[in-house]
């Protein structure tokens, strides 16, 4: 078994692809998922299935109440999940304030505890919803913070490397990569509305469907009538 890697595993398409990439690299896999009181909580059941599929050494699920912070359509039932808009230039209502900063911080601590040298996150700055915590500048800043904050780096001369293998890929390229690596996309969910069948019209569904169309494949998950 190779070096240990912590993988942020939401249960969605991108994080599943990250698991496939880390697995292909020969890492021993330690996925971490979050119950942050999100309206699409069913993604956690998908994350559990993906972890089992990849024979994860350990799957950590952390509860953190980001609904208490509020301000996002993903955590606040009073804010509607918007439909996908390819022309949008502003940050959408589905942005969860500081989510990736918080998740990466937990994952960094987990990586120290298990002795992992790699930390994978499926952020993307090509086909994404405009979130500031998906951009390269944020990842570079977090890497610098990780280098300064961990005992692994400060005292033991080691380093936990933040890996972003999807950063510069289009959604179609992500799907092509995952397909090549055998990623079990049938176990994933991406819909922000969290129903049993994906809606097909929210930002995340639109980007996902556009990606499958770009590579000439049909998405293997079920969609509500008219969603695909």
UniProtKB/TrEMBL annotation:
EC main group: ligase
Keywords noted in UniProt: ATP-binding, Ligase, Metal-binding, Nucleotide-binding, Queuosine biosynthesis, Zinc
Cofactor(s) essential for the protein: Zn(2+)
InterPro entries in UniProt: QueC, Rossmann-like_a/b/a_fold
Binding site for Zn(2+): 191, 199, 202, 205
EC number: 6.3.4.20
Residues given in the record as ATP binding sites: 9-19
Pathway: Purine metabolism; 7-cyano-7-deazaguanine biosynthesis
Domain of life from the UniProt record: Bacteria
CDD domains: QueC-like
Note describing how the cofactor binds: Binds 1 zinc ion per subunit.
Reaction(s) catalysed by this chain's protein: 7-carboxy-7-carbaguanine + NH4(+) + 2 ATP = 7-cyano-7-carbaguanine + 2 AMP + 2 diphosphate + 2 H(+)
Quaternary structure note: Homodimer.
Record family assignment: Belongs to the QueC family.
Chain's role: Catalyzes the ATP-dependent conversion of 7-carboxy-7-deazaguanine (CDG) to 7-cyano-7-deazaguanine (preQ(0)).
Protein name in the entry: 7-cyano-7-deazaguanine synthase
């Amino acid at each position: 078994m190779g070096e240990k890697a912590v993988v942020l595993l939401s249960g969605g398409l991108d994080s599943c692809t990250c698991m496939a990439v880390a697995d292909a690299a020969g890492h021993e896999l330690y996925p971490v998922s979050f119950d942050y009181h999100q309206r699409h909580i069913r993604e956690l059941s998908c994350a559990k299935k993906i972890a089992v599929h990849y024979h994860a050494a350990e799957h950590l699920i952390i509860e953190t109440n980001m609904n208490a912070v509020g301000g996002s359509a993903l955590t606040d039932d009073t804010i509607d999940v918007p439909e996908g808009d390819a022309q949008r230039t502003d940050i959408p209502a589905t942005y969860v304030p500081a989510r990736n900063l918080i998740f990466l911080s937990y994952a960094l601590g987990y990586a120290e505890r298990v002795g992992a040298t790699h930390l994978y996150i499926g952020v993307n700055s090509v086909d994404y919803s405009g979130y500031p915590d998906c951009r390269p500048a944020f990842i570079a800043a977090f890497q610098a913070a990780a280098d300064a904050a961990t005992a692994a780096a400060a005292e033991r001369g080691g380093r936990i490397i933040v890996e972003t293998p999807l950063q510069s890929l289009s959604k179609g390229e992500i799907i092509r990569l995952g397909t090549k690596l055998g990623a079990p996309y049938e176990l994933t969910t991406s819909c922000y509305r969290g129903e049993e069948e994906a809606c097909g019209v929210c930002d995340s569904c639109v980007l996902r469907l556009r990606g499958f169309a770009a590579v000439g494949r049909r998405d293997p998950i079920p969609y509500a009538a008219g969603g695909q």
